Structure formats: structure tokens, C-alpha cells
């Protein structure tokens, strides 16, 4: 009679235990989903701000006020959105009104540098993870939008 080859039950259990230990120790490195989700949210907000700024600028250009600053004669808001040189101003009445949900879902804080506003997560995150919006400085310069801290949220 031939002897059948195979693994014993104890050998199989030992291999499963070893694989379980490896999975428990290695999984957190590969499954850092919260950090990835926060980084994606920041990139999404940056894109939403850029899109909203472009739409508002287009409406300002149609109305012929894309080159006017707040103090200029003929300056006006675009559909209730405060603008500076045709782009949304760095305020809650500017970019905050242009991006739907920005005032409700994010914390907007004016920056120490003039004309810049910072959007951070409402809670549970460091301030290093944020999107900054710097309004247009003149008629030839669009706003600067940056997402910071996307690697360590």
C-alpha cells in the first residue's frame, strides 16, 4: 500500500497562526484609510475651490468687472459672492459662498497674511492638514490654492 503525502493538522495550524501574526502586524501599514481619506478630501476641496473660482471669474468677465478691486468704482459682488479682481475674495462671503458646503463642513480661518483664508477639518485632525486660498493680488494674477499636509493627516 502506498503512503499518502500531505500536511498534518498541526502543521496547517502553525502556518495559519504565523500568517495571522503577520497580517496583524503588517495590516496597519497597508490599511491607513483615515489618512488617505483626509488627503483625498483636501485634494477634493482644492479642486472645488479652483472650479468655483473659475466659474465666478467667468461670470465676472461676462459682467465686465473682472479687473476691478473692492475700492474701484463699478465694483460689485457676483451673485452674492464677494469678489476681488473677478475671483472670489478670501472670506467666508467670497470663496466660502462660492463653494457649496464650505462654510458648513470646514473651519475657515483668516491667515496672518492678508488676503488668505485657511480651511481645516472640523475636528480630529492637526492644523497641518489644510487648504489655503490666497485671493487674486491683481487683475493679471489668479488666486493661489494649495493643499498642505496631505502626507501626514
UniProtKB/TrEMBL annotation:
Keywords: Membrane, Transmembrane, Transmembrane helix. SUPFAM superfamilies: Pili subunits (SSF54523). Coiled coil: none annotated. PROSITE patterns: PROKAR_NTER_METHYL. The chain crosses the membrane at residues 12-31. Pfam families: N_methyl (PF07963). InterPro entries: N_methyl_site, Pilin-like. NCBIfam families: IV_pilin_GFxxxE. This is Type II secretion system protein. It comes from Aliivibrio finisterrensis. The lineage of its organism: Bacteria, Pseudomonadati, Pseudomonadota, Gammaproteobacteria, Vibrionales.
Amino acid at each position: 500500500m502506498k503512503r499518502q503525502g500531505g500536511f498534518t493538522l498541526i502543521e496547517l495550524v502553525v502556518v495559519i497562526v504565523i500568517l495571522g501574526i503577520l497580517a496583524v502586524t503588517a495590516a496597519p501599514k497597508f490599511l491607513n484609510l483615515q489618512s488617505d481619506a483626509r488627503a483625498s478630501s483636501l485634494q477634493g476641496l482644492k479642486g472645488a475651490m479652483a472650479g468655483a473660482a473659475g466659474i465666478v471669474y467667468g461670470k465676472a468677465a461676462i459682467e465686465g468687472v473682472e479687473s476691478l478691486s473692492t475700492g474701484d468704482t463699478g465694483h460689485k459682488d457676483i451673485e452674492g459672492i464677494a469678489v476681488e479682481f473677478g475671483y472670489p475674495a478670501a472670506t467666508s462671503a467670497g470663496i466660502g459662498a462660492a463653494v457649496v458646503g464650505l462654510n458648513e463642513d470646514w473651519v475657515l480661518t483668516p491667515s496672518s497674511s492678508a488676503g488668505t483664508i485657511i480651511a481645516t477639518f472640523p475636528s480630529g485632525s492637526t492644523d497641518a492638514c489644510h487648504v489655503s486660498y490666497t485671493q487674486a493680488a491683481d487683475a493679471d494674477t489668479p488666486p493661489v490654492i494649495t493643499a498642505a499636509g496631505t502626507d501626514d493627516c
